[in-house]
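Hi C.,

You asked whether I'd gotten around to modeling the 365-residue construct. I have! Everything is below, sequence then structure, no commentary in between.
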Amino acid sequence: MSPPPRLLLQLAYALAAWTAVAVLAGLRDPLYALSVGRALPPARLMVEPLVNCWVWALLTPTMLWLADRFPLDRRRWRASLAVHAAGALCAVGVSAVLTFHGLAWLGHEAAPSLEAELAAELFIDVYSYAAVVALGHALTYHRLSVAQRLRASELEAQLLGARLTALEARLQPHFLFNALNTVSSLVRTGDSDAAVRAVARLGDLLRALLREDAGQEVSLAQELEFVERYLELERARFGDRLEIALEVDPALLPALVPRLVLQPLVENALRHGIDRSAARARVAVRAARDGAMLRLEVEDWGAGGDAAQAGRAPPSTGVGLSGMRARLARLYGERHELSLVAQPGGSVARVAVPFHLQALQAAGS
């Protein structure tokens, strides 16, 4: 069986690191000779640190496994310390044997005996084992820290999703109650054909609302389609009194917007526009790109009223608009705008969100 990829990767990293250590150790004597004006030592003296470090490179994956399997934590540090003490002695012995015989096989002038090689390298080898085990602990704790951050991020994303879903759920009953009022008003007036059409439109809207695959963001085209279905339902109620204008650049239709971002604004425009006016009323829905932002606008004419005359904004504390403010903050943080301003004869609601074609990660996550 071939070794697992992780083992091969560890061996490759260990070989590169220990080779760098050997080169640095071998350069000590030549650099010293150059600094004092002496002759350079023979190049064959580089062989011994290279062989010794390559032996430690072969032992490194085992030492990293011991560090991961027997961490020096509070619960079992005594048992782990005993294991690492035995591991250090084994590593020192194996290193001395392999280095001694490796140098002999290469014809290099090694220590006069294995015992001499063991005594000469004992301190540095114990230190090397401790350094590798410390590195293993650092890698383990780093891996655990990354895993904990990932789990915390996933939990935060789940919590954020639940909050966004709850905010969106507040919009749906609010809208559905108004739609049912429209149907009931048609029934009371005896217009059965219009009531049947309204029920059919309401069924279409319910199917769109209950789609399980719909995320927090949809394309502007989908949002406009939903608004048009809602307006068809409202036309059954207001008839010729209601005039709708959609002013949207087709190039912006693929852009993503929060789901149900326009419908509450249109509903608000109808409530504060045509509901207050016995005459004909007009609602315009616009979309335009402004640099990195997508700006949406819903404007109505026909309300007038005291709020407009006084220059004050019409009421904006309803469930729809307050829920929208909370959703925009959850989705985009500070990168959003929402305003509802009165103007002579009506009002205009404006929303700005980042222009993007792929789903953004919620700002809270």
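If it helps when you're writing up: The longest strand covers residues 281-290.

Thanks,
B.
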